[in-house]
Hints:
globular; three-stranded antiparallel sheet
Amino acid sequence: QTRRMRRAINSVFAFLEDVKGLEFGSGSIKCRDLYEMYHFHVKELGRAKPVEFEPFIQMIADLGHLVEQDPVGEYVANGIRKARTLRAVA
Length: 90
Protein backbone atom coordinates (compact mmCIF):
# COMPACT_ATOMS: atom_id res chain seq x y z
CA GLN A 1 0.00 0.00 0.00
CA THR A 2 2.72 2.47 0.99
CA ARG A 3 4.79 1.52 -2.06
CA ARG A 4 1.83 2.13 -4.40
CA MET A 5 1.21 5.51 -2.82
CA ARG A 6 4.88 6.42 -3.12
CA ARG A 7 4.89 5.42 -6.81
CA ALA A 8 1.81 7.55 -7.43
CA ILE A 9 3.30 10.70 -5.93
CA ASN A 10 6.99 10.25 -6.82
CA SER A 11 7.73 9.77 -10.52
CA VAL A 12 11.46 9.43 -9.80
CA PHE A 13 10.82 6.50 -7.42
CA ALA A 14 8.57 4.84 -10.02
CA PHE A 15 11.18 5.41 -12.73
CA LEU A 16 13.95 3.77 -10.69
CA GLU A 17 11.70 0.79 -10.01
CA ASP A 18 10.54 0.38 -13.61
CA VAL A 19 13.39 1.30 -15.91
CA LYS A 20 15.46 -1.39 -17.53
CA GLY A 21 19.11 -0.80 -18.19
CA LEU A 22 20.20 0.32 -14.73
CA GLU A 23 22.02 -1.57 -12.00
CA PHE A 24 22.03 -0.55 -8.36
CA GLY A 25 24.54 -0.93 -5.58
CA SER A 26 27.77 0.08 -7.28
CA GLY A 27 29.20 2.37 -9.90
CA SER A 28 27.97 5.82 -10.78
CA ILE A 29 26.16 7.71 -13.50
CA LYS A 30 26.04 11.36 -14.46
CA CYS A 31 22.80 12.85 -13.18
CA ARG A 32 22.25 14.53 -16.56
CA ASP A 33 22.33 11.11 -18.30
CA LEU A 34 20.02 9.63 -15.66
CA TYR A 35 17.68 12.60 -16.00
CA GLU A 36 17.48 12.13 -19.77
CA MET A 37 16.50 8.48 -19.22
CA TYR A 38 13.92 9.56 -16.61
CA HIS A 39 12.48 12.29 -18.81
CA PHE A 40 12.08 9.92 -21.77
CA HIS A 41 10.58 7.21 -19.55
CA VAL A 42 8.00 9.52 -17.98
CA LYS A 43 7.03 11.06 -21.32
CA GLU A 44 6.70 7.63 -22.95
CA LEU A 45 4.40 6.39 -20.19
CA GLY A 46 2.44 9.61 -20.14
CA ARG A 47 1.74 9.12 -16.44
CA ALA A 48 3.11 12.32 -15.05
CA LYS A 49 4.84 15.55 -15.89
CA PRO A 50 8.58 15.13 -15.34
CA VAL A 51 10.14 17.14 -12.54
CA GLU A 52 12.83 19.68 -13.42
CA PHE A 53 16.52 18.75 -13.17
CA GLU A 54 17.31 20.34 -9.78
CA PRO A 55 14.38 18.69 -7.96
CA PHE A 56 15.28 15.42 -9.74
CA ILE A 57 18.76 15.50 -8.21
CA GLN A 58 17.29 16.13 -4.76
CA MET A 59 14.77 13.30 -5.18
CA ILE A 60 17.56 10.89 -6.19
CA ALA A 61 19.42 11.87 -3.01
CA ASP A 62 16.25 11.57 -0.91
CA LEU A 63 15.88 8.00 -2.19
CA GLY A 64 19.22 7.13 -0.60
CA HIS A 65 21.69 7.62 -3.42
CA LEU A 66 24.77 9.73 -2.77
CA VAL A 67 24.85 12.64 -5.21
CA GLU A 68 28.13 14.51 -5.57
CA GLN A 69 29.76 16.92 -7.97
CA ASP A 70 32.67 15.55 -9.98
CA PRO A 71 35.88 17.58 -10.57
CA VAL A 72 34.30 19.46 -13.51
CA GLY A 73 31.15 20.31 -11.55
CA GLU A 74 28.74 17.75 -13.00
CA TYR A 75 26.40 15.97 -10.61
CA VAL A 76 26.97 12.22 -10.31
CA ALA A 77 24.69 9.68 -8.61
CA ASN A 78 26.66 6.95 -6.85
CA GLY A 79 25.28 3.45 -6.49
CA ILE A 80 23.54 3.59 -9.88
CA ARG A 81 25.09 2.63 -13.19
CA LYS A 82 24.07 1.66 -16.68
CA ALA A 83 23.67 -2.09 -16.91
CA ARG A 84 26.35 -3.97 -18.71
CA THR A 85 25.05 -5.95 -21.61
CA LEU A 86 26.42 -9.37 -22.35
CA ARG A 87 27.62 -9.93 -25.89
CA ALA A 88 26.95 -13.23 -27.55
CA VAL A 89 30.08 -15.20 -28.27
CA ALA A 90 30.18 -16.35 -31.90
